[in-house]
Amino acid sequence: MASLFQYLLCMVLLQLPLFISAQTYNNITLGSSISNLDEKPYWTSRSGDFAFGFHPHHKDFFLLAIWYAKIPVKTIVWTANDGKPVERGAKIQLTSNGVLSLTTSNGTEIWKAEAIDNSQVAYAAILDTGNFVLSTAESKFVWATFDNPTDTILPNQVLDLGNKLSSRLTKDDYTVGRFEFVLLGDGNLVFYTIARPTEKRNEPYWASGTVDSGTQLEFNQSGYIYLTLKSGGIRSLSSERPVSTEEYYQRATLDYDGVFRQYTYPKSSPTNGWPESWSTFWSLPQDICTSSFGEFGSGVCGFNSYCKLDKDQRPECLCPPGYSFIDPDNSFKGCKPNFVQQVCKADESRIVDGFEMQVLSNTDWPFADYEWFKSVNQDWCEKTCLKDCFCAAAISRRGGDDCWLKKFPLSRGFMNPSSDRIALIKIQTLEHLNNNGMNLSAE
Ligand SMILES: *[C@@H]1O[C@H](CO)[C@@H](O)[C@H](O)[C@H]1NC(C)=O
Ligand SMILES: *[C@@H]1O[C@H](CO)[C@@H](O)[C@H](O)[C@H]1NC(C)=O
Ligand SMILES: *[C@@H]1O[C@H](CO)[C@@H](O)[C@H](O)[C@H]1NC(C)=O
Ligand SMILES: *[C@@H]1O[C@H](CO)[C@@H](O)[C@H](O)[C@H]1NC(C)=O
């Protein structure tokens, strides 16, 4: 008897690993729900790599999202509800009809996902790839987050013609921002800035040039990102050789600064502990500060500011002297002058009174010219702008003899060490500021 029992036990144990590997995900059955008040307000993939549910965002706000669950950096890779947070008491439910429904504490539905073709949904699952799916009983996926990306794509994910990524607004605000990465219906892969609050696209600031030849954008299992072509070939977005997806988590995100970056993060803790952030593997475009944004829009930074790549090659938006950020929490929103504009008067000497020019080397605002002089020097350029009440700034060329006068708002400015342009900014002198400002009582 005992030997028969041992034999049976042995058979069961031998079968067990096979049984587990065939079962690749945890089903979320119809009628299941989670509330953000639950102790564990999310579902995890079988490997535990990804979670789907309520990500604690701010003190009392949550995002319905997908994120990396195992590593200390709980990076979000997808958000529901257009990135808008929900308050305490919100609930996500897979209803008995197979609709994934997000409701607030008073039961109002604010977002939902359902089968694209009226198929009967049998269950949902968060897969080990990071894809959350609604599935039929035959395991046909009838809605998937991989088909509805927000700002990120993951290995094994494909963008079809007409699909896009939209950047979020700021580092912590997941609502829609100003940049798009689109695989157009004609096969061209392009980056745009959007003329908010409309959906109008400005001229592209990067394009793959694959009109009539591109078919899909693939992020394959080995970590390569490329366009597949009608010819059967591929067009890689980077020549870098990826690291292993077995050892590294990988994602590619259209960041809130308009740059598309492929990132890596080690799956197991290195000897000196987990890194505090993801490493950038490559990015596109290489220098967004000097990318060509066409005629309209503010470019990467807001109006009246200028863009400079920092030591990590990330764009940093800065204000010229005499200016400050419109929103100190969002440097991408642009800058405002800290003074009242020069008033146009018939008497030139009175216009100039209280104003001065400040020099910003290697800096240019290539747009918004209203006058161009030749065969003049920097000193002449400065004086001419100073006494012209329409002039916000002037650009002079080192060793050259050009002078461009600029009007408000200054747009698509950048500082680049290799630039021979010298920006001359008109600002109010400090004493004048004090005399005209709040400080009158001191006089
Ligand atoms: C439910 O709450 C939302 C805010 O979360 C509010 O806008 C809506 O009016 C409320 N609806 C009802 C029926 O109370
Ligand atoms: C998930 O549910 C489907 C449909 O009910 C079923 O066929 C499948 O075996 C289930 N899978 C697991 C891993 O439980
Ligand atoms: C991913 O793409 C690269 C480049 O085309 C290719 O060499 C590699 O075999 C692909 N990996 C998989 C798993 O398809
Ligand atoms: C007021 O203006 C005077 C000079 O006119 C300056 O010395 C003083 O610091 C100013 N006070 C403030 C509060 O700005």
From TrEMBL:
Signal peptide as annotated in the record: 1-22
SUPFAM superfamilies in alphabetical order: alpha-D-mannose-specific plant lectins
InterPro entries in alphabetical order: Bulb-type_lectin_dom, Bulb-type_lectin_dom_sf, G-type_lectin_kinases/EP1-like, Pan_app
Domain Bulb-type lectin: 28-147
Matches recorded under SMART domains: B_lectin
Superkingdom as given in the UniProt entry: Eukaryota
Keywords linked to the UniProt accession: Signal
PANTHER family with a match to the protein in the record: G-TYPE LECTIN S-RECEPTOR-LIKE SERINE/THREONINE-PROTEIN KINASE SD2-5 (PTHR47976), G-TYPE LECTIN S-RECEPTOR-LIKE SERINE_THREONINE-PROTEIN KINASE LECRK1 (PTHR47976:SF108)
Protein name, entry field: Bulb-type lectin domain-containing protein
Organism: Aquilegia coerulea (Rocky mountain columbine)
